[in-house]
Design a protein that fits this description.
Spore Coat Polysaccharide Biosynthesis Protein SpsA, Chain A, 7-stranded mixed β-sheet, 5-stranded mixed β-sheet
Amino acid sequence: MPDRQIVGLVNVKHEDIHVRQAVENMAAFCDCILLADHGSTDETPRILRELAERHAHAEYFPIANPRESHELIKSYSGRDTWIFGVDGDEIYDPAGLAKMRADLFAGRYDDAWMILGNVLNCDLVDRERKSAAGWLSPPCRSITKLYNFRHIRSWDGDTPERLHGGTIEFHPGRDALARLNLHEREPWETSPLRCLHTCFVARSSLDPALPAVRENIMDVHAAAPLARVRRWWKKLRGEPLESDWKKTRYMRGERVTIDATPFFP
């Protein structure tokens, strides 16, 4: 299928510790990489510009609002394109992605609208010893974002950032229920779509030695009214805004330690 493509969209802010590894590991998986930074004041913009120069199929986009990141991919609706959303704290296994790419181009997952892969939500990443520790999905929820845009006519409306919110219009016979929970079928050791989610460790050189667990989009947009008031009060007082969402969903089950060698080739 010569017209099929995989488009990676990296949407980041203050991610200069892991973002280079995150992009390098997914570079060969993608035919096109969109590097979107919304207002980082650490080294993230410099790193993304260097990556865009290093990889001919990558392009750097400074954006003023995360909503703009979704504008970069709307035009792919209805085309034979897989959209791969990657954050600056997601380090994928490049060998696994190579297998995943071959399977995608062979049509193995054509009936899926969304594929959810295996994740280790890390509170420890030791690059020198090539090890990582944290909580696996399952039982945690998966955070991987791989979407088959051939299934849809459009993705418009209120999208606070790429691949979140808004209104999706599917082609006849297609719907959002076509989710492939690969992480529930494949064990961590053999999954072709697995990543280190460095959500509980420092992600920026601007972070303190013991960083707060950063908020994510669901903390801001899905919080109850009382939680929003508490968030506003903390922000007014200059206190760190930690993520209750992540703690309750990404710290489930037994904490495990894994060999992280494949993630740092």
